[in-house]
Each structure stands twice: as C-alpha cells, then as structure tokens.
Specification:
Blueprint (H helix, E strand, L loop, with lengths): L1 E11 L5 E11 L3 E5 L6 H9 L1 H4 L4 E8 L2 E2 L5 H4 L3 E4 L3 H4 L5 H11 L4 H14 L15 H13 L5 E5 L7 H18 L2 E5 L3 H7 L2 E6 L2 E6 L1 H4 L4
Parallel strand pairs: 3-8, 3-9, 6-7, 7-8
Antiparallel strand pairs: 1-2, 1-4, 4-5, 9-10
The protein binds adenosine-5'-diphosphate (2 copies).
Protein name: ABC transporter related
Family: Belongs to the ABC transporter superfamily.
Subcellular location: Cell membrane
Length: 234
C-alpha cells in the first residue's frame, strides 16, 4: 500500500524563498527511492516536509499536504510521526548526543515511555539491524563516520517506523563506510520491508541501490522513474 502521499506541496521559508513548488509524490511500502538534483533544488526541504519537521519545527508558508502512513503531518505531533517516519538529517553529529551507543538508541524510547524490558529488546534489535552489535559501550566519538550514521539509523529504527528518510547520509563518510551504510539500508529494505527515501547526489550510488529516482529542480519534481532511465551516467 501507499505509505507516503505528497499532494501539491508548496513551501516558502519566512524570507520568502520558495523551496518547494507543487510537489506531488506517491510512495508505496517497500520502495527504495533516491531523491536527486542540483543544489539547491528543494531536496532538504522535502526531507523536512516528509518527516513532519515542516510544519512543526521549520516554519514557513505551506500549501498542499503530506500524509505518512495515512496521517496528515499537520495534524499530528512530531513524536507521533516519529513512530511512522524516521529522519536522518544531513549532519550526523547534530543527531547524536555523545552517549554510549546503547543509551543513544534507548533515550528516544525512554522519552516515549516505553517499558525498560521492551527498550532492552528494541535496542539490541536495532543495533543488530545496522551491524553494530558489540559496539554497545562506545560513544559516537569512538565511531567512524559510517558507524555514526548507522548508529543514528539504529536510534531511528528502534521506534519501528515504516519509512526512513535520509538527507545525504554519506556526504562525510569515506567510500568503505558509504558502502556499509547503503548495504545496511538495502538489507533493511529487502528483509524488513522498510521504505527508504534517501537524498543522494552520487549518481553511481543511486543507480546501484535505488529502485526509483526522483529528480528535482527549482523545487519541482522534473523526472521520476527507474534510475537507469532518469539519471544520466556521468
Ligand atoms: P537542496 O537540499 O536541494 O540543496 P534546499 O531544500 O536546502 O535545497 O533549499 C531550497 C531553497 O530553500 C534554496 O533556495 C535555499 O536557499 C532555501 N532555503 C533552505 N533552507 C532555508 C532556510 N532555513 N531559510 C531560508 N531559505 C532556505
Ligand atoms: P554539478 O554540481 O557538477 O554542476 P549539477 O548541478 O548538474 O552538477 O548536479 C548536481 C547533482 O545533481 C549531481 O551530482 C547529480 O547527483 C544530480 N543531478 C542533476 N541532474 C541530474 C541528472 N539528469 N541525472 C542525474 N543526476 C543529476
């Protein structure tokens, strides 16, 4: 079924800058979508909109609507949306608290009032899913760039979302780390049915992992389809 529905979404920042212009998108459960395009074309703004940061945290003028797992993002608080859609923002450091890996993943669950026994279970499961078993006691400063991103992904997965949206997750990650992050996303997508939406500017990475590419330009979707058809190889 459909897990993300964006209808005629336009967004302007308070300074009047229009970042999204009549964007419509329908994404089904289990898709792996790369969002591409020159900067700036509205990719990060779309990430804010898909995760509910717009309208709850990032202010501006909105037209149109975003529904995730059937919920209109305007009508539900971020904490409620986070159980449906996980978000990884561009700067991984900003998302990590410098706690031990186990606490990093546990804290959002504690904040939601999840019982301790359930937290233990979910933290173990989430670290396992991103290949960070054995890293429980490490802090982010003791992790590589790719490991940090996978820890951020684990902390989002522990909430058991249907969709994960990532904004250039490997922008500051070396090539081996990039591969690990994407192999992790591929496994989550194929084995757990997680819907993946990722802003990625490396064409070769998008072609290899995504099943669908959405190309943006000037705040609009200008192409949408199979990566091999949408993306020029350069
Ligand atoms: P991309 O991710 O494709 O680089 P963005 O979504 O970051 O594009 O930016 C789209 C447009 O919105 C740009 O013109 C950018 O300058 C503007 N923009 C982004 N963030 C803000 C902000 N916080 N305040 C004002 N304008 C912004
Ligand atoms: P450059 O930064 O080299 O001038 P562009 O501004 O054209 O390149 O695009 C920046 C990024 O946007 C590229 O790295 C690519 O990921 C993406 N992009 C833009 N247009 C296309 C396209 N037609 N096919 C694939 N990727 C594209």
């Amino acid at each position: 079924g459909e897990v993300v529905r964006v209808e005629n979404l336009s967004f302007s920042y308070p300074n009047g800058r229009r970042a999204l212009d009549s964007v419509s998108l329908s994404i089904s459960q289990g898709e792996f979508v790369a969002v591409m395009g020159p900067s700036p074309s509205g990719k990060s703004t779309l990430v804010y909109a898909l995760s509910g940061l717009i309208p709850h945290c990032v202010k501006g003028e909105i037209k149109g609507s975003v529904k995730v797992d059937g919920l209109d993002t305007r009508e539900h608080p971020v904490a409620e949306l986070a159980k449906r859609v996980g978000v990884i923002l561009q700067d991984p450091e900003a998302q990590l608290l410098e706690l031990r890996a186990v606490d990093e993943v546990a804290l959002p669950l504690e904040n939601l009032g999840v019982p301790a026994e359930e937290i233990r279970l979910r933290v173990g499961e989430a670290l396992e899913m991103v290949g960070l078993r054995g890293y429980e006691e490490r802090s982010p400063s003791e992790l590589s760039g790719g490991e940090k991103q996978r820890l951020a992904i684990a902390s989002v997965l522990a909430l058991r979302p249907k969709v994960i949206v990532l904004d250039e997750p490997t922008a500051n990650v070396d090539p081996p780390g990039t591969l690990q992050v994407y192999e992790t996303l591929k496994r989550l997508n194929e084995e757990h049915g997680l819907t993946v939406i990722v802003v990625e500017n490396k064409v070769e990475v998008a072609r290899r992992y995504a099943k669908r590419a959405v190309l943006m330009e000037g705040g609009r979707v200008v192409a949408d389809g199979e990566p091999s058809k949408v993306l020029r190889s350069d």
